[in-house]
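Session log. Operator J.P. requested a structure for one protein chain; no other inputs attached. Running the standard single-chain path with token output.
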Amino acid sequence: MRDKHTGTRPLLEIAVQDATGAAVARAGGADRVELCTALGATGGLTPSPGTLAQVRSIGIEVHALIRNRPGGFVYDDAELGAMADDIRSVGGLGTAGVVIGVLNADGEIDVAACRLLIAAAREAPTPLHITFHRALDVVADQVAALATLADLGVDRVLTSGGARQVGAGMAQLARLTQARSGVQIMAGGGLTLDDLPALIEIGVDAVHLSAKRMAADPGRQGPGGGLGGGLEVTDPALVSAAAAVLNNIDRRPR
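Structure written below.
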């Protein structure tokens, strides 16, 4: 379900962890949200059905992260089966898309595993959009990987250009955009507001940021209560500032 972005600016996607964050993203001008849980501690895991149902009620396009554990991106058959079931579950709850990423032991796209997950996504009442997440940043030849993902029917990739942060991956992001693979390029990973003008210049299709800050935890910390240190919340000022930059800087012709 390739929905090539043809607008005058990159779309804005915000990674959120709850309905409150989704409401902040919508009010601040985001185009869609990626919904996950345990973002700061793990890089993001699959959200619960209850959370997804709440976020769906906000009225913004929702893509659900499908990742059942932290760590690397090589999964066994049981893990893949669980993720396929999660995809079927979120598809039945009205999400617009899923975010996946599977590699083999050599650090290349696991084609068979991706086919399994994509087939589950196609079983939804309305076929789901497919985003391949930052597992791509582990792949040695990202341009070649784009061709593989295009053949699989992936709609977009989330990538920092293989760098720890987007700002250090600009040259590679430009190469990925110039590859004209048919797969949308969404820049994300340590992205700051200062990166946005350069990303517009490069011509990426979308930008992705968590726009999160720490808030005080109203509850007491106990032996089984987690790490402490506060709660991650979506920052309205960051979302609005990112939307303002995107809306006020015209994309130059490619």
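Operator note: Strands lie at 11-16, 32-35, 61-65, 97-100, 129-132, 156-159, 184-188, 206-209, 212-215, 231-234.
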